[in-house]
Amino acid sequence: NSARHFSFDYALGPYYGYLLPKRVGRMRCTYREVQYDLARFMVSEITPDDRYDVQQATIKIFDAQTWLEQIAATHTYTDLTTGELIAEALDEAGWPADLRQLDAGQLAGINVTYTDVPIWSGHILKGLESERGIAFIGRDGAVVYQDRHHRYKGAHLTPQAVFVDGMRDFRPSLSYREIANDVVVTYAGGGTVQRIDASSQDAYGPMRLPVTAELLGLGDATSLAEWLLDRRKDPHSKPPRLLITNGTEAKYQALLDLEISDRVRVTDSRSGIATVDFYIEGIQHDIDFRQHTHQAEYTLTLCDVDRYLLIGVPGYAEFGSGKFGY
After folding, report:
1. What is the pTM of this model?
2. How many whole angstroms separate alpha carbon 185 and alpha carbon 123?
3. Which CATH number fits domain 66-148: 3.55.50, 2.20.25, 3.10.20, 3.30.230?
4. Which whole number is the average pLDDT over 316-320?
């Protein structure tokens, strides 16, 4: 900040009047004449340090998830799908219609009232506890909702990037904390369904997983409990980390173009992984403009297509068969 361009009180600076709290900003990168969005954000705090030996400015930012969490609302949802519920919640918050990417959802006929709770955690995520879908803020700043079948269709059926030995740092891990052999699902009306695997408890001790699914009835809650138990009763690896540093064409594409839910293929002979596909669950960019380096760290989960959960007519129509009931 030697020229004080990022000092909010410097009236001669080119950004004077724009460096304000809650101002919308965007982080972009251009590579081979293609522009990539890395993040859309709002300014939280600006702290310039004009000392001669420092001359830098720190700008703290937050995304739409934090903004939506600050807005509390009371709203009644009537006869909706999950996607329609999320759309109405965003309407309640005054969220722009052009910053939404919402699936229709696998639940229908939703009737529920949420009273004076945050839009993000109290309305949107509450609905997703029953749906088993995901919601996140995309690179372009849009609120993205993907139902529980989203990853088993379309572009998600083939890898968007392939990483082989020598291209990346792959860090798998195995933890007992990922085991669940006593699943308790609380469903509409406050009732509960419990499913236990005795063999798993004998081997690893009791590990309870409580789940709230207040939009499900008894039958669907039972299916969910059995499905979760089947997935969690045996040890499985925690979401592994994949660290990539720029330097080759393939790495640039991965650094700039991958998004949450994208499918990637990994080969890692050191850990015994021949060719395995994963979904991206989280992305963290580390950019050093002085050193001209760019790293991205991806949190991954194993692609598990043969064990998807079908509840509701939309699921049958799209897939025809699946691991129904567990």
Report:
1. 0.83
2. 19
3. 3.55.50
4. 48
